[in-house]
Amino acid sequence: ARAGNAVGLWARNPDRAAAMAESRQNATYLPGVTLSPAIEVTADPAAALADALFVLLVVPAQFLRPVLMALPDTGAPVVVCAKGVERGTLRFPLEVLEALRPGRPAAVLSGPNFAHEIAKGLPAAAVLASADAALRKTAGDLLGTAGFRIYGGDDPMGVQVGGAAKNVISIAAGAVIGAGLGENARAALVTRGLAELSRLTVALGGRAETAAGLSGLGDLLLTTTGPGSRNTSLGVELARGASLADALATRVGVAEGVETAPAIVARAAEVGVELPICAAVADLLAGGVSVGDAMGRLLARPRRDE
Ligand SMILES: NC(=O)C1=CN([C@@H]2O[C@H](COP(=O)(O)OP(=O)(O)OC[C@H]3O[C@@H](n4cnc5c(N)ncnc54)[C@H](O)[C@@H]3O)[C@@H](O)[C@H]2O)C=CC1
Ligand SMILES: O=C(CO)COP(=O)(O)O
């Protein structure tokens, strides 16, 4: 909307959609932000999608499939903003889309982008990656503003791996801090986490340099260095003794790393890639190991060259 487009915003719940249309706020998920008059909120998906040049899918990774199934298919290209891996199928978001809408032009938008800062118009950058050069250009042109700099990318798999893996590594970073293991440990963990992210990217056909870009290193820098990240803050809470159920019950927004941790480990195993840090997070979330024991396990791995 800030870039000068008319936007249809579909919300599932008719009461919430009506409240948002009336108050011009999403009080639950983005309190304190006034919606632009160019955004028309509706609970009718057909109305939201009418004349849309493309569709932004902005629900958590586990809900992409049911949401896509609920939306009428207008033939419009799709830009996915979710960062995760679907449990069960072990698919990345664009793979879920391809299964439901084969051949549809699609892109992924990702980067170090806390929603509340984007909503305030603070400067930020993201990468819009697609195998479809025309979509990359039109969606990049339409979404970019003076303060929101969009880079194009032709490695959508690498971008998706970065977005998904960084959420898991953020939980690990939070756990290390919450357990008082120190900032050296966090830096080591994030760096070796980046190596995991990079290995998986390459094994799935992406490029190692994508891991060093906005969607990989960039997002890791944002979310592993402070409590502003929901995944990192979840890791802190778990390390301080909260159960996963209690930690999830007391928060509003999603922590994508919870569902993605076991899924990304399993997906990596399919292509013969080991993700020790992500696996440690999956075990921590499953309640099978303490933070101290998980760190001990990582430190005890056979020594090798970096
Ligand atoms: N919030 C942020 O700063 C950023 C979030 N993302 C990614 O965007 C995706 C969405 O995240 P958020 O909006 O932050 O999550 P959120 O937890 O704040 O909001 C979730 C949204 O999904 C809807 N939802 C919940 N259950 C649903 C269901 N069963 N079916 C359909 N919709 C459902 C909720 O009504 C809500 O609108 C995630 O993959 C996240 O990693 C990416 C960049 C930044
Ligand atoms: O992906 C994000 C910022 O780029 C949001 O991170 P959290 O979901 O951990 O808050």
Automatic annotation (TrEMBL):
Its EC number is 1.1.1.94. Residues 155-295 form the Glycerol-3-phosphate dehydrogenase NAD-dependent C-terminal domain. InterPro entries: 6-PGluconate_DH-like_C_sf, 6PGD_dom2, G3P_DH_NAD-dep, G3P_DH_NAD-dep_C, G3P_DH_NAD-dep_N, NAD(P)-bd_dom_sf. Residues 1-134 form the Glycerol-3-phosphate dehydrogenase NAD-dependent N-terminal domain. NAD(+) binds at residues 63, 115, 230. GO terms for cellular component: cytosol. One of its GO terms (biological process) is glycerophospholipid metabolic process. It is found in: Cytoplasm. Substrate binds at residues 83, 230-231. Its main location: cytoplasm. The active site is at 166 (proton acceptor). NADPH binds at residues 12, 29, 83, 115, 230, 254, 256. One of its GO terms (molecular function) is NAD binding. Pathway: Membrane lipid metabolism; glycerophospholipid metabolism. It is an enzyme of class 1 (oxidoreductase). The keyword Oxidoreductase applies. Keywords: Cytoplasm, Lipid biosynthesis, Lipid metabolism, NAD, NADP, Nucleotide-binding, Oxidoreductase, Phospholipid biosynthesis, Phospholipid metabolism, Signal. Sn-glycerol 3-phosphate binds at residues 83, 111, 166, 219, 229-231. It catalyses: sn-glycerol 3-phosphate + NADP(+) = dihydroxyacetone phosphate + NADPH + H(+); sn-glycerol 3-phosphate + NAD(+) = dihydroxyacetone phosphate + NADH + H(+). Pfam families: NAD_Gly3P_dh_C, NAD_Gly3P_dh_N. Belongs to the NAD-dependent glycerol-3-phosphate dehydrogenase family. Catalyzes the reduction of the glycolytic intermediate dihydroxyacetone phosphate (DHAP) to sn-glycerol 3-phosphate (G3P), the key precursor for phospholipid synthesis. HAMAP family: NAD_Glyc3P_dehydrog. This is Glycerol-3-phosphate dehydrogenase [NAD(P)+]. The gene is gpsA.
